[in-house]
Amino acid sequence: MARPRNFDRDHVLHAAERQFRTSGYNGTSVDDISAATGLGRGSLYGAFDGKHGVLLEAMTGYFARLAQGPRKMLAGPDEGALERLHAYLLRAVHGVPLAADVPPASDRAGAACFAAKMALEIGASDAEVKRLANDCFSVVRAAVAECVQAAQRNGDIDPDADPDDLAYLLLTIIRGTDVVGAYGHSPDRLTSIAESAFALLPRPRHR
Amino acid sequence: MARPRNFDRDHVLHAAERQFRTSGYNGTSVDDISAATGLGRGSLYGAFDGKHGVLLEAMTGYFARLAQGPRKMLAGPDEGALERLHAYLLRAVHGVPLAADVPPASDRAGAACFAAKMALEIGASDAEVKRLANDCFSVVRAAVAECVQAAQRNGDIDPDADPDDLAYLLLTIIRGTDVVGAYGHSPDRLTSIAESAFALLPRPRHR
DNA sequence: ACGTTTATTTACTGAACAGTCCGAAACCTA
DNA sequence: TAGGTTTCGGACTGTTCAGTAAATAAACGT
């Protein structure tokens, strides 16, 4: 028996995430979050315990979303695994979408992996952020590794290659495109990088 | 006939760079810079025109240093170009040194490419920083592309591969390891990523 | 309809911020 | 050694910051 909450929690966290993405953590004030979300300062503190709490919850929500996208894109039968990997790579280098139905931000810098951006900015002095960011990385890396194994079973990738090593490398490339994109390079250039990476995947020795 | 400057400009810029690297741009106050460099606020404003000016000059100095390191490591005869590329890749994934004779910071997060870190944090809203960061990227990329061409001439890399594409990809990987390193992964893991990347370089079809 | 409980808003506080200013110090020339 | 010039560093200003607390509004059970 009490007054129900008047805002949508996820909607607020999305708005906060967008703000953090464009201004960074230290570049975003509580008033900025307040303006972006429409919530007053008091409500923010009551619901999320301040700026840092908003960040942690936004990253947690991001993590939950992130786990779904690549998993759905990459999971499936062994047949076609290589094509799925190809499609994922091409999409991933153009940024991480804010939500399942929202395409990545138009400016590539704002579309960089949220977790990566926060980890680079404050991860060195914020263990919790660092851990959360690494969780984001790990879950995607695992999905990629699984898809690599599927492609290996289907004879599309050299069975001697270590799928974990390949997954690490591919994810490192995707994270690298966040940086290259922040430099201002065109989407075409990022596509070209992704295609180069895909072309270098080790094929079976004798087909 | 006047009082001479009492500090070494490069030394001050190095200290500021280290501060910016560990705390980020927005996370660094003018007092922090003052404490790190030993200069008073007035001197900082007189010599560098404030925080943003310090950043620009620090990045310019970084650019000048950065241009030399890889160029010296990668330049040389066609013979051995592939080995030089290998050595460079292995070193690069462990961070960018603060100076020629100073090894990268012990914490991998603080050793990330200074330009990349700044570009990701404020590049979206600071065109000058973005441009400087891209210059840093371009100069190293050009050095790598040249080394790739040397290796091609020596028959160590598939002559049909586009050296610029390969250089973009390799640099993207190196930038990606900055992010992966910020997640807290071990140096061994980064070495492994570098070795995987090197192993995938396209070799000539018939040796 | 009323009182309780919670959400929300607004005003407030002390600290930290970027940037300015000025007295003091250091140096060169004469 | 005196004068002129520049650097130096602490003190100062107005602003913005994160976080709190009190006041108001809204919804629910009874």
Automatic annotation (TrEMBL), chains A, B:
PROSITE patterns, per the entry: HTH_TETR_1, HTH_TETR_2
Gene3D superfamilies (UniProt xref): Homeodomain-like, Tetracycline Repressor, domain 2
DNA-binding region: 29-48
GO molecular function, one term: DNA binding
Residue ranges annotated for the HTH tetR-type domain, each copy included: 6-66
Superkingdom of origin organism: Bacteria
Keywords linked to the UniProt accession: DNA-binding, Transcription, Transcription regulation
Pfam families: TetR_C_13 (PF16925), TetR_N (PF00440)
Keyword Transcription attached: yes
Annotated protein name in UniProt: TetR family transcriptional regulator
